[in-house]
């Protein structure tokens, strides 16, 4: 397996991965979207709410507020020593107490753990007019996107890597030049790099297959990972691999236990 970075920044990572098949590529995508633990608000206790929004709506908005967290200091509830009762190792409390007139943003959430805070501090929660008040206690915990999308760290998509055959015939290019996106050209020539970077190959092929023919490699894929802000795309990829390792270890333990159990039954007979 080989990985080659195409482009990257704080929110988006695009890379080429080769030497794997469709099943493995889709497994990686599902791990990134649904299996990486992130922190999100799970329970909300509304003490006072004079706003125009129902308690349920405010709770829903809080649940969808992305939270930063030091994931190394927290456990998933099902893997915690408290046996899902809830403790400082698997959850954290946040409070909110404000009075209008004001637009209450996510920055008003005060956490007992400084490492747990809203990713988007200016994300609006509720609008309070004069004399209106809101007071609540929220409980955040680690969770996975497969349980609820609020725990998903971002999105991941992939496609088979395309191989392009571009015509060099100027007569054909000039015939369709007005229909071809300008971004596909460099120095008045159809350029493969321009076409790939701007994802234009399917659009040009639909104009005419005389211009371009597209084939797809079965063992090479272009992945795009975009973060919602809880962690970087690079960390999302690394954490997905770590989670996959954990699942493989658990599977190996279960397989070993099953084999021992089967042998034990045979010996008893």
Question: Can you offer a commentary on this structure?
Answer:
With 269 residues, the protein is an alpha+beta fold. The chain has a domain at 38-148: Beta Complex (RNA Polymerase Alpha Subunit, Chain A, domain 2), CATH 2.170.120. 29% of the residues lie in helices and 35% in strands. The chain has six helices and 14 strands. The chain has helices at 22-35, 55-63, 170-176, 192-197, 201-207, 233-268, and strands at residues 2-8, 12-18, 38-49, 67-68, 91-99, 102-105, 110-111, 117-118, 124-128, 133-143, 154-166, 185-186, 189-190, 212-227. The strands form five sheets. A four-stranded antiparallel β-sheet has the order 1-2-14-11. Strands 3-10-5-7 form a four-stranded antiparallel β-sheet, covered by helices on one side. A hairpin with a 3-residue loop joins strand 1 (2-8) and strand 2. Helix 1 crosses helix 6. The radius of gyration is 26 Å and the shape is flat. It starts with a strand and ends with a helix. The relative contact order is 0.19.
What is this entry, summarized?
The protein is α+β, with helices and mostly antiparallel strands and 269 residues long. The chain is built from six helices and 14 strands.
């Amino acid at each position: 397996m080989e990985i080659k970075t195409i482009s990257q920044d704080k929110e988006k990572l695009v890379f080429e991965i080769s030497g794997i098949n469709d099943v493995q590529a889709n497994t990686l995508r599902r791990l990134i979207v649904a299996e990486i633990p992130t922190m999100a608000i799970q329970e909300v206790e509304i003490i006072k709410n004079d706003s125009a929004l129902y308690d349920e709506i405010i709770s829903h908005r809080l649940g969808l507020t992305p939270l930063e967290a030091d994931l190394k200091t927290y456990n998933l509830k099902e893997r915690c020593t408290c046996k899902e009762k809830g403790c400082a190792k698997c959850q954290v409390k946040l409070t909110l107490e404000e009075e209008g007139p004001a637009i209450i943003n996510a920055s008003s959430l005060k956490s007992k753990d400084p490492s747990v805070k809203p990713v988007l501090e200016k994300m609006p929660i509720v609008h309070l007019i004069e004399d209106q008040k809101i007071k609540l206690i929220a409980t955040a915990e680690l969770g996975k996107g497969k349980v609820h999308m609020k725990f998903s760290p971002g999105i991941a998509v992939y496609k088979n890597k395309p191989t392009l055959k571009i015509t060099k015939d100027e007569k054909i290019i000039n015939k369709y030049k007005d229909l071809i996106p300008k971004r596909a050209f460099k120095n008045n020539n159809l350029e493969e790099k321009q076409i790939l970077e701007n994802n234009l190959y399917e659009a040009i092929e639909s104009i005419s297959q005389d211009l371009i023919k597209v084939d797809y490699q079965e063992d090479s894929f272009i992945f795009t990972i975009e973060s919602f802000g809880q962690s970087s795309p690079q960390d999302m990829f690394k954490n997905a691999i770590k989670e996959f390792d954990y699942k493989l270890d658990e599977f190996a333990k279960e397989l070993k236990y099953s084999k021992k159990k089967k042998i034990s039954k045979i010996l008893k007979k």
